[in-house]
Amino acid sequence: MGRQLYGAFPVFREAFDEVCAALDPHLRVPLAAVVFAPEDSADAVLVHETEFTQPGLFAVGVALFRLWESWGVVPGAVVGHSVGEVAAAHVAGVLSLGDAARLVVARGRLMQGCERGGAMASVEASESEVVEVLAGVVGRVSVAGLNGPAQTVVSGDTAAVDVVVGHFAGLGRRTRRLEVSHAFHSPHMDSMLDAYREVVEGCAFGAPGVTVVSTVTGGAVSAAVRARTPRSGSSPSSAIRSPIDAAYAARSAPESVSVPVSAVRRCGEAPAPVSAPARSPARSCAAAGATISQWPRGSGAVRATGEGCQVSS
pTM higher than 0.85, yes or no? Predict the structure, then answer.
């Protein structure tokens, strides 16, 4: 999708290039060389390493925001999932591009250096149901994300995750193993926290120009919270290990947050009109943008986007 958008929309291309220019001094290979590398080449496989995956997601997320912004889509609030929270903080004015780029690259590099292996899985169950099962599981495993009232992600030791998956599969619930290199948002990440905290402490946090909703707390990020960063429970470093509650964040700003349609439906919100999927992701985003750009500026009408057109990943 990023390649198609880059070729189709000058605004996306310019924003992507600007973000790459901020990221590249901190990367061992220029990001565009990885993202746009020929399939099966040595550079192409690097995109599957979180050291490059996270900067790539950040660059695409920010460029998508700028593209939608050029169509007149002005958010009343922003929210991001995992590394997408850094993108949300940047476009809201909390982090400069330079600080956000340094933070994203450090995050990816430090996670890359954490214990490899482990597993992550999504299960059709509420958080309380999963927590009850985890109490009887041996090993390091925890709730990594809350995608909805009945969809929870667990992460940790492979054997422990298998036990959780097996339990809910046995009840006829849907389960899905995630393709990951590490057990993110789990105790497997603990070894990076001190080093990451040092990077966060070197960042300057400004006042947001638009409300930023935290998926750790479920509430708006305030000046008081920013003053406590990074040592408080609402810091960027805490999001490495804390469960990501996408549903809570969506409910906190239901009139203005772009989230997947399916997640909004699971949260009980009526989804906004979205364009039918086109043949390519770039055309889907273009069609959705053309439709939404006709809505009143700042009306708060944008509740949901198509699964392939999220602003933050």
Answer: no
